[in-house]
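Write out the 3D structure for:
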Amino acid sequence: MTCSICSREDRERVDLAIVSGEPQRAIASRFGVSRAAVQRHAQRHVSPAIAAVHAERAEQGATSLLDRVEHLIERTERLLGDAEQNGRVTTALGAVRELRSLLELLGRASGELSTVPTVTINLMATEEYIRVRSAIFAALMQFPEARAEVAGRLLALEAGPS
């Protein structure tokens, strides 16, 4: 009996999906073969050497938290797609909940979602600024034109961008 997957032109893609840990049901659905064919092919024809090389590459490549979270998101999205395609509403809802949590984690880890409160300090209302401003105006008391010029510029700065 000939293996239906071994004779396919896209056999390498099927092998990659198998060694990547993609669910056999999803592989079967994606490549239009039976789950049993995927299972037999994985057991009998996927080289242990290929699986070992892929596992080593995955271990070396998925070192950062962001990489690992993104990988989990990809897997969860595949599971969600499979659940939706097969009409498994409960499984799909679970995948959506998990995907939401993973996206939140990715946002926090990447800095897109910051949980650190933003603090804005109005420097012009601080005692130090008021003292410096007063000292500048006192020093310019003898120079009315310069004092008026400085006052105009400070007022423009204090008004903010126009």
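The chain has three domains: 1-61, 63-115, 123-159.
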